[in-house]
Amino acid sequence: MTARVLDGVATAAAVKDELRARVAALRERGAAPGLGTLLVGDDPASASYVRGKHRDCAEVGIASIEATLPADASQADVAAAIAALNADPRVTGFLVQLPLPPGIDERACLELVDPAKDADGLHPTNLGRLVLGVDGPIASPLPCTPAGIVELLARHGVPLEGAHVAVIGRGLTVGRPLGLLLTRRGIDATVTLCHSRTPDLAARVREADVVVAAVGRPGLVRADWVRPGAAVLDVGITRGPSVPGSSKVRLLGDVDPAVDAVAGWRSPVPGGVGPMTRVMLLANVVAMAEAALRP
Ligand SMILES: Nc1nc(=O)c2c([nH]1)NC[C@@H]1CN(c3ccc(C(=O)N[C@@H](CCC(=O)O)C(=O)O)cc3)C=[N+]21
């Protein structure tokens, strides 16, 4: 067997086409959506992700508002920048790029974001709505990577209802909210949420119809862990050594490429979950701008 590709680039492009039409409709009603970003410090990977998000916005007609602070910004500086984005009428949704520099309290910063402008879906109110399994009075944004994974599977016809999903990783942005999303009514997967202290991880993965690896350890998921025909989603992105004779660094996923001989589906790195994460951010911004128009 050779695994079929869960193509995040093509799927994200299809979602973008749908969003472009919704953005045009919003603009006609005088409610142009705008994405704000707050980047603190000069981590090159973070700067490159933020640039990518603004490029995506331009492609669908969403305005971009960029805020930056130096690496030595204080907690109060970050709080003031978040307050300015909360108050800016051009900004219908924004995110605080993570990770924040050492010394800044990330959780405290996320709590300062207006939940109605929380493009990442990481404010405790929105995570609470995810736990409750209901949409709030405003459209409640979903965390982008979990939402992107569900969309990627749905658009490739990979069923989740009745499926057993092994999620590896319990982080705030991927594993933990993904477990909540997959077990919602209407999605109806059965989830085993695995982490660094799970005994016999290989055995938990072997039981799964769908495997999601979100750890950041290259090659963690090996071919002999995977049930034949399973769908394997790779969320890990580790920057490896540069390609010999080129300035490009190799991006390494959490899934050993040898898995392709066993799996039914695999999402590649790059070109899988990453582009879906980015497009779900845009989807949140559009949905929040639409919600703001409703009486
Ligand atoms: N507040 C906040 N929200 C985030 O959503 C957030 C964040 N902070 N901090 C960092 C992580 C990481 N993340 C990625 C999104 C897209 C790709 C992506 O598109 N990757 C390309 C490769 C791009 C490359 O790294 O060269 C791909 O997989 O094809 C990667 C990583 C969002 N994150």
UniProtKB/TrEMBL annotation:
<keyword id="KW-0554">One-carbon metabolism</keyword>
<dbReference type="InterPro" id="IPR000672">
    <property type="entry name" value="THF_DH/CycHdrlase"/>
</dbReference>
<feature type="binding site">
    <location>
        <position position="237"/>
    </location>
    <ligand>
        <name>NADP(+)</name>
    </ligand>
</feature>
<dbReference type="InterPro" id="IPR020630">
    <property type="entry name" value="THF_DH/CycHdrlase_cat_dom"/>
</dbReference>
<feature type="domain" description="Tetrahydrofolate dehydrogenase/cyclohydrolase NAD(P)-binding">
    <location>
        <begin position="143"/>
        <end position="291"/>
    </location>
</feature>
<feature type="binding site">
    <location>
        <begin position="169"/>
        <end position="171"/>
    </location>
    <ligand>
        <name>NADP(+)</name>
    </ligand>
</feature>
<keyword id="KW-0521">NADP</keyword>
<protein>
    <recommendedName>
        <fullName>Bifunctional protein FolD</fullName>
        <ecNumber>1.5.1.5</ecNumber>
        <ecNumber>3.5.4.9</ecNumber>
    </recommendedName>
</protein>
<keyword id="KW-0511">Multifunctional enzyme</keyword>
<keyword id="KW-0368">Histidine biosynthesis</keyword>
<dbReference type="InterPro" id="IPR036291">
    <property type="entry name" value="NAD(P)-bd_dom_sf"/>
</dbReference>
<keyword id="KW-0486">Methionine biosynthesis</keyword>
<dbReference type="InterPro" id="IPR020631">
    <property type="entry name" value="THF_DH/CycHdrlase_NAD-bd_dom"/>
</dbReference>
<feature type="domain" description="Tetrahydrofolate dehydrogenase/cyclohydrolase catalytic">
    <location>
        <begin position="6"/>
        <end position="120"/>
    </location>
</feature>
<comment type="pathway">
    <text>One-carbon metabolism; tetrahydrofolate interconversion.</text>
</comment>
<dbReference type="InterPro" id="IPR046346">
    <property type="entry name" value="Aminoacid_DH-like_N_sf"/>
</dbReference>
<comment type="similarity">
    <text>Belongs to the tetrahydrofolate dehydrogenase/cyclohydrolase family.</text>
</comment>
<dbReference type="Pfam" id="PF02882">
    <property type="entry name" value="THF_DHG_CYH_C"/>
</dbReference>
<keyword id="KW-0658">Purine biosynthesis</keyword>
<comment type="function">
    <text>Catalyzes the oxidation of 5,10-methylenetetrahydrofolate to 5,10-methenyltetrahydrofolate and then the hydrolysis of 5,10-methenyltetrahydrofolate to 10-formyltetrahydrofolate.</text>
</comment>
<keyword id="KW-0028">Amino-acid biosynthesis</keyword>
<comment type="subunit">
    <text>Homodimer.</text>
</comment>
<keyword id="KW-0378">Hydrolase</keyword>
<dbReference type="Pfam" id="PF00763">
    <property type="entry name" value="THF_DHG_CYH"/>
</dbReference>
<keyword id="KW-0560">Oxidoreductase</keyword>
